Recover the amino acids of this structure.
């Protein structure tokens, strides 16, 4: 919780439409919620996507998927096709994972405290399918100071025409 509280203090200084205070910390109720059986998820996703989205896996750093995109575009969830991130909010973090300083909106993701591996981190999940996307850290660039560290294999990039 410590981390979420420090994010809340940063929020009023952000000066853009993203407000970390408005991000849900439980699975959001949505009319378009995607709920599938484990079997159906396995059919819909590749093996790697399934491991990340449904089993909170992490792709290897620098696997290259969606890391160095050219041109403006939108990144959609591979699980449910919800628009999550856009090129304008992307930056090169040097970590080897696609990194964004904010999502497309307050309501496309939600946060959950992750205590795996003896660390306390904030997990980022898709608001529509509850798929695991990655984590958020507070060492990102302006204007938000946040770094959304996201698995590239669970994002589908579509270039703007
Ligand atoms: Zn999704």
């Amino acid at each position: 919780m410590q981390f979420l509280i420090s994010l809340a203090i940063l929020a009023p200084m952000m000066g853009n439409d993203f407000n970390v205070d408005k991000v849900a910390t439980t699975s959001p109720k949505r009319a378009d919620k995607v709920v599938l059986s484990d079997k159906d998820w396995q059919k819909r996703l590749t093996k790697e996507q399934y491991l990340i989205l449904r089993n909170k896996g992490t792709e290897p750093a620098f696997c290259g998927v969606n890391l160095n995109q050219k041109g403006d575009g939108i990144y959609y969830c591979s699980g449910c096709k919800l628009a999550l991130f856009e090129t304008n909010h992307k930056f090169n973090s040097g970590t080897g994972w696609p990194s964004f300083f904010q999502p497309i909106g307050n309501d496309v993701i939600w946060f959950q405290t992750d205590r795996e591996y003896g660390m306390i981190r904030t997990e980022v999940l898709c608001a529509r399918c509850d798929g695991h996307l990655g984590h958020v850290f507070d060492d990102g660039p302006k204007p938000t100071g946040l770094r959304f560290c996201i698995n590239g294999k669970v994002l589908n990039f579509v270039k703007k025409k």
Observations:
- Helices lie at 2-10, 38-44, 47-55.
- The longest strand covers residues 109-114.
- Strands lie at 73-77, 83-86, 90-91, 99-100, 109-114, 121-126, 132-137, 147-150, 155-159.
- The chain has three helices and nine strands.
